[in-house]
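Z., the sequence and structure:
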Amino acid sequence: MTDRYSVIGHPINHTKSPLIHGLFAEVSQQDLEYGAIEGGLDGFEAQVLGFRDAGGRGMNITAPFKLRAFELADARSERATLAKASNALKFEHGKVYAENFDGIGLLRDIEHNLQVPLAGRKVLVLGAGGAARGALLPFLAAGPAHLVIANRDLAKARTLAAEVTDPRVQVCAYDALGGQDFDLVINATSASLVGELPPIGPEVFDHALLAYELAYGKGLTPFLRLARESGVAQLADGVGMLVEQAAEAFEWWRGVRPETRPVIDRLTVPLD
């Protein structure tokens, strides 16, 4: 019997998840079908439980439902708990299990695909929302020297730092970033989704090895353009993270981790 999975979001017409998981199933010879569901703002929970009750095995969750998926779950991973959000659900034994693979997918793309280890590095994360929350535990496990969270709302950044109680995590206002050196600069804000630049200057890239844009498929965003103009040698957008987090969910569901490189190459949009 073919196992059923799906992604749910609002809107959902832009999603790459059915393509990605279809390719994963093909190369790993897994018998499954993967669809997409347009989520209702008033009926999300009923849709998820209805999919489960109809025999669904798991779901990916995209905007704007990640927080509601976390609340719906019966059991939650440590990563999901810190993020207070879930991007993947698994249905087993009548229960809903929540995970968050965004951060581990990002880390794998940086360290495995881009060959930039975080151990001993100085990392700057722009933004303190859900994307930053999802990345924090995997990043700290990779052993950076320190990690700075810059955000407009310092109270929000301080709350996030306090939840992990790790002395390597510092918070900073955007206008106080001058004079600090960073090896990696990661844009976890929503600025690029509307074609804007986070409130940073070129000095944040003075010593950077990598500038990473979480938004994917948008080409050379204002953030990446500033990084290139500032001399950063390696630029990346979030397509690798998208594929790697999908592979983590696939392995969680199926017990098999698919090869990701061919899928990343297929989805990559040139940064020009």
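Residues 105 and 245 are 4 Å apart (CA to CA). The chain has two domains: 3-100+240-267, 103-237.

Let me know what you think.
H.
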